[in-house]
Amino acid sequence: MKNENNFEELSENCFIAKNDSLKILKHMKKDSIDLILTDPPYNIGKFMQKRNTNMGKLRNNHFSASGWDNLSYDDWLKNMSKFFIESSRIIKNGGSVIIFMSIIKVETIIKLAEKFGFYYKTTGIWHKKNPMPRNMNLHFVNSTEAWVYFTYKKKTGTFNNKKKLIHDFIETGLTSKLEKKSGLHPTQKPEELVSHFVELLTNKKNKVLDPFMGSGTTGKVCNDLGRTFFGIEISPKYYKIAKNRLSTS
Predict the structure, then answer these.
(1) What residues form DSSP beta bridges with 146?
(2) In terms of Cα–Cα distance, which of 25, 170, 178 is closest to 98?
(3) pLDDT digits (tens, 9 = 90+) for 120-172
(4) Cα–Cα distance between 191 and 151 in angstroms, integer?
(5) Which CATH number do you get for residue 122?
(6) Into how many domains does the chain fold?
């Protein structure tokens, strides 16, 4: 069943839509979202293809060969600007945003977000304890990804640290084989990583949005933690995977 915003209701707390996220975001209710947690295209596919990193030996669904990470810089910039425009409309004052992003694009993302009222909090690192050791005899093994943290209109938001010191450095393994089997996405994040942010930055029954949900990891975590989830995915393949995953979680 679809509601008036073209989200399909999988349960009373889980809604997903198959479309370009920018088209769906325009119809979402103003000031309705507590946390945006997402992993958008980094727009480094062509950059990676040009490097001498044995890309031809990698699996076909590696992000650099997928096609969805190959926009021109100007087109990517326009899309991310539109994303922040719509995000600023639908997120609550004091709401939080976590965006995973290539480190070479972090400064650009910060400048864009600040134009639309987002307060830059910090840039953190996810360290993968068991990264793929390709090209280990040529250069440093790629074992990190960046994430950027913003709040909207306010300098502080929900932060459930329980008086504990929380570092901007998160360390987990890669997505497990069991999780990968149910997700099958080339840039799929582990549930442990996503849970870290959902627990810190939201409370029970808060609303979490992932406009680039892929195979639905953020939704799976929200289902497990008692948050309401809204997810958008443009790929019919991954939308179907996410729908099945979230319908059975």
Answers:
(1) 101, 125
(2) 170
(3) 999 999 999 988 877 777 788 889 999 999 999 999 999 999 999 999 999 99
(4) 23
(5) 3.40.50.150
(6) 1
